[in-house]
Automatic annotation (TrEMBL):
It comes from Methylobacterium goesingense. Keywords: Cell membrane, Membrane, Transmembrane, Transmembrane helix, Transport. InterPro entries: Mem_transp_PIN-like, Na+/solute_symporter_sf. Pfam families: Mem_trans. The chain crosses the membrane at residues 39-56, 63-83, 123-146, 158-178, 198-221, 233-259, 279-305. This is Permease. It is found in: Cell membrane. Belongs to the auxin efflux carrier (TC 2.A.69) family. The keyword Cell membrane applies. It is a multi-pass membrane protein.
């Protein structure tokens, strides 16, 4: 299990490092990075979500219990972070990065590890996990950005507009709607969306690496620790409790624990840049959590799996 997790994390670490090297060597012009972030946020990531949700095989999966466990644990940790914000002494934009670091997850690692552990069944379980958590997390994050982000508080109409036109939220709703209606994707569109979605992962990680500013690393320590504690301690424990209450066990419970113990996603940085968050801090949280996950994920899975059978 540990080897599978480390193999899934290694390319992420390498791509973040490559992004940092490309930015510092000026191999690409400074104008490239903002445009790459925009491309990822509005085109590539939505393509990934739509294709993944529509093509997910769901036969034989305890969908109701798995979705309930994942959404419940996510809401619990989100509530914990919001309740504790006043004690963190963080500016609004910095809090949005801590919040994202505590609730968002890296789809790429989750799918890779689930497939390595459970094969085709793991891919199906990972698809359900994405369908449950992706829209939940993106709606929560948009609301937090609207309340605490540097772009200022919008009116109710502005908030509804943020949700209605957020490309990640829209992509999740479109994917779930097409899947629920049994419509699928037309033959020519599915391969195009798959290719665009696959491009989102490496490009997002390169952008994370390019945004790293180690000159401000000292200011990251407390926010990184808070976000990582929420992600690697509070979230798995909340998930374990939900599994025990709802009787979820076996590979489905293991997948729930896996996804809720993942490091935050590269899309967190892109969202921070687009919606007025603290993007450099978000890049630091992403990089540190990716490295920490090599240690924490095996400990969480080995330590907690026996409790859910």
């Amino acid at each position: 299990m540990t080897g599978t997790i480390l193999l899934a994390l290694l390319p992420i670490v390498l791509l973040i490092g490559l992004g940092a090297a490309l930015r510092r060597s000026r191999f690409l012009g400074e104008a490239f990075w903002p445009q790459a972030e925009r491309l990822g946020y509005y085109i590539l990531l939505p393509s990934l979500f739509v294709h993944g949700l529509v093509t997910a095989p769901l036969e034989g999966i305890p969908i109701g219990a798995l979705v309930t466990v994942l959404v419940t644990s996510t809401l619990l940790v989100a509530g914990l972070l919001l309740a504790g914000r006043r004690f963190l002494n963080l500016e609004g934009a910095a809090f949005t990065s801590v919040f994202q670091g505590g609730v968002r997850f890296n789809n790429y690692v989750g799918v890779s590890v689930a497939a390595g552990l459970f094969g085709a069944q793991g891919i199906a379980l990972a698809a359900v996990a994405n369908a449950a958590i992706v829209p939940t997390v993106n709606i929560l994050c948009v609301l937090v950005f609207a309340r605490f982000g540097a772009l200022g508080r919008p009116s109710l109409a502005g908030l509804l507009r943020l949700l209605a036109f957020n490309p990640l939220v829209v992509a999740c709703l479109v994917g779930i709607g097409l899947k629920s209606a049994g419509l699928g994707l037309p033959g020519g569109i599915a391969p195009a969306l798959r290719a665009l979605g696959q491009a989102s992962l490496p490009l997002g990680l390169l952008c994370v690496g390019a945004a790293l500013d180690f000159g401000t690393a000292r200011a990251w320590v407390r926010p990184v620790l808070v976000a990582s504690a929420a992600k690697f301690i509070a979230m798995p424990l909340a998930t374990l409790a939900a599994c025990l209450v709802l009787g979820l066990h076996g590979p489905a419970a293991a997948t729930a624990l896996l996804f809720q113990a993942l490091p935050t996603a590269s899309s967190s940085y892109i969202m921070a840049r687009q919606l007025g968050g603290d993007a450099p801090l978000m890049a630091g949280i992403t990089a540190v959590q990716t490295v920490l996950a090599g240690l924490t994920m095996p400990l969480v899975l080995i330590g907690l799996l026996d409790l859910v059978g």
